[in-house]
Amino acid sequence: MAEAFIYDHVRTPRGRGRKDGALHEVSSVKLAAAPLAALERRSGLDTRLIDDVILGCVDPVGEAGGDIGRAAVFAAGWAIEVPGMQINRFCASGLDAVNLAAAGIMSGQSDLVVAGGVESMSRVGLGASGGAWPMDPAVALPSYFMPQGVSADLIATKYGFSRDDVDAYAVESQRRAAASWAEGRFARAVEPVRDGNGLMILDRDEHMRPGTDMQSLAALKPAFAIFGEMGGFDAVAIAAHPEVERVEHVHHAGNSSGIVDGAAAVLVGSKEAGAAAGLRPRARIRAFASIGSDPALMLTGPVDVTEKLLRRAGLTIGDIDLFEVNEAFAAVVLRFMQHFEVDPGRVNVAGGAIALGHPLGATGAMILGTVLDELEARDLGVALVTLCIGAGMGTATLIERV
Amino acid sequence: MTYTHFTFEAGADGIALLVWDSPGRSMNVFTAEVMDEIEAVLAAISADDAVTGVVVTSAKRDFSGGADLKMVEALLADYAHLKDADPEAAMQRLFVEGARMSRLWRSIETCGKPWVAAINGTCLGGAFELALACHGRIAAEGDFRVGLPEVKIGLFPGAGGTQRVMRMAEPQAGLTFLLQGQTVAPKKALALRLLDKVVPAASLVAEARAMIAAGLSAKKPWDSDGFRAPGGAVYSPAGFQVWPAANALYRRETHDNYPGARGALAAAFEGLQLPMDLALKVEARHFAGVLASPEAQAMIRSLFVSMQDLGKGARRPVAEPPATPRKVAFSAPASWAPASPM
Fold first, then answer.
1. Which is it for the CA torsion A309, A313, A317, A323, positive or negative?
2. Where does chain B show beta strands of DSSP type E?
3. Which strands make up the sheet holding B115-119, listed edge to edge?
4. Is the N or C terminus of chain A more exposed, i.e. has fewer CB atoms within 10 Å?
5. Is residue B252 part of a domain?
6. Do B248 and A136 lie within an 8 Å CB cutoff?
7. Which of B235, B251, B269 faces A130 most closely, judged by CB atoms?
8. Would B146 be classed as within a structural domain?
9. Bridging pattern class, strands A393-401 and A283-292
10. B322 in a domain, yes or no?
11. Where are the domains of chain A?
């Protein structure tokens, strides 16, 4: 089997996902095209060599609908020979895009593939693509549908994370993110978004709130109590997990991932294709997996998929140097660290989505890039990237520096 | 024309009065024979150019208690008998026969002449579904209930009830009405938009006739292009305010142990996305599935058949003649003492 290597990765800054966010003026397609253009410029590649552009997008409707992969190829001015596709596994889409690219290369059917994702949450809107999961009794009932925040609160309740625990985690995420920017650790990954004339639109992550402390978070009311109590979703949570007598609502906007706009792209290729293009490989994609997990807990998939992936790769948790566990909600990461008893100093070392934001379809590719940069900066070898996923799933990828 | 269960009287104004009065019963109920007669009445009315509309009412104190569950029992006995030899044929028969009432009500709804239900008293289950299929519904003022209590005995309103309620009532109110098997006073049904009018009992039939004379349409809103249910499209921002919570509340109220309630929810959700005839077919599929469920069969047995027997004193010693108690004595064991307040 051929090996798949990461040659480069770029991301946009993450703009606040509202009408006053700096990236709100940028269409989904232009946002998706920005990292493609940056990859081309940085690699000097003839884009005709690229076998596919695979983009994750979670709400692929309206301007992000149809096939935004192919649309981004045109908007980036790439060769017409480059096809594109859009995939959706909710929050892991960006990482699944990379895994799919790697699968094509490992199987020998592709040589160079660009994988990543895009989400303009300010323009398209969270949940804009609808779907049967929350709506249709045939799906909603067996999946114990509830809003993700209620599931996150169920995780916190079941596994014993208090409001202080989740808030403290959020404070640390903000501290790490601020430090990463201050130390220039995102400098290589982040490519500013510019207008058609080259003028700057945004060059920094906009969602961060440096200086967030326990006192400022304590002022926020639990965001999901109303869904749980009025909407009947606490009863759904308890029906699935009767060991929980009541759901303690601990999550709020300050300890949950931020709603932002952003895009990312990763250049994946075979050893031969990279060498022929004069590129230096930065990491090998060693293994990847996806799994379905308890749909009521919904967001514990990172635990299940990591166990599956470690078995597949013949590794133990101790073999991993750094982890990226997407900070959808603080309890997701706390549960991961609790289950595997991993040192918090190895998890989300540059700060995560609580501070930086979670542009749904793009995040998987972004945090893969982040952890690769951190492996290099610390001269470490192996990292695991994983995300929790709506409806109870997890996707994970193991990378290893070369 | 003469019928056993109905009297039929064509008025000079072209409006026929169909009066239900099953002999030997205190309450009208739908039996196979009653259904046969309604079919015959409908055919006769459709063929008679002199008849321009129909008012249906009852000669008894109540309108009707709905279907005779013996009919359902017979259907289920038939199913049990057939299913071992040929499960598919058995289910096909349950699907077709279980939807007989649904088809009949739909033929009234689409017969081209306006029907008005003049509800003079209690009107439940299949009878209320008949009223919903009529083009107008007027109830008398009075201390009685109308509604669809089917989920309380493990079933759901499978003769168009789920479809018509959701096309007439606001979605939350309609779902609550269906899933809780509510029976309500006429005024409440009016507020739910399931009735057109509530009038003094003395003028009930006259009001019903007047409704037809005033030009009541024989075409239901949902049989016209561009019909929009009160809740709008299922897959819409408005629908998103309804269905996720409906699923959660269904689970909270039932612990997902009631196929009847679940069938009603699914039939409402799926049916709202379809034109009426197809919606009724989908409702019938769910109805057959619910009928075949052990939960529904056990609930019909315990909560209806056995409960009726109990009410009639089925286990009462036969030899003992009935007696009316005149005095009641109360004796307590010596150790008994009233609980002292703490």
1. negative
2. 6-10, 15-20, 53-58, 115-119, 123-124, 136-140, 146-147, 183-184, 197-199
3. B6-10, B15-20, B53-58, B115-119, B136-140, B197-199
4. N
5. yes
6. no
7. B235
8. yes
9. antiparallel
10. no
11. 5-124+257-284, 137-185+208-255+286-401
With CB atoms and an 8 Å threshold, state whether A235 touches B252: yes
Domain boundaries A5-124+257-284, corresponding CATH code? 3.40.47.10
Domain that holds residue B43: 6-311
Superfamily of domain A137-185+208-255+286-401: Thiolase/Chalcone synthase (3.40.47.10)
Q: Which one of A59, A126, A129, A136 would you mutate to disrupt binding with B, by most B Cβ within 10 Å of its Cβ?
A: A136
Domains identified in chain B, total number:
1
Q: Which of A9, A57, A91, A251 is catalytic?
A: A91
Mean pLDDT for back-to-back runs of 10 residues, chain A (402 residues):
97 98 98 98 96 98 98 98 98 98 98 98 95 97 97 98 98 98 98 96 97 96 94 95 97 98 98 97 98 98 98 97 98 98 98 98 98 98 98 98 96
Q: How far is B246 from chain A (nearest CA, A)?
A: 8
Contact: A130, B255; criterion CB under 8 Å: no
ipTM associated with this complex: 0.90
Question: DSSP labels for A23-83?
Answer: GGGS-HHHHHHHHHHHHHHHHT--GGG--EEEEE-SS--GGG-S-HHHHHHHHTT--TT--
B191: helix, strand or coil: helix
Q: How many C-beta atoms surround the C-beta of residue A61 within 10 A? A: 14
Examine residue B25 and state whether it is found in any structural domain, yes or no.
yes
Whether B255 has its CB under 8 Å from any CB of chain A: the answer is: yes
CATH of the domain at B259: 3.90.226.10
Q: Does A232 touch chain B (CB under 8 A)?
A: yes
Query: Is A57 a catalytic site residue?
Result: no
Residue among A135, A140, A235 minimizing CB distance to B235: A135
Q: Is the Cβ pair A232, B239 closer than 8 Å? A: no
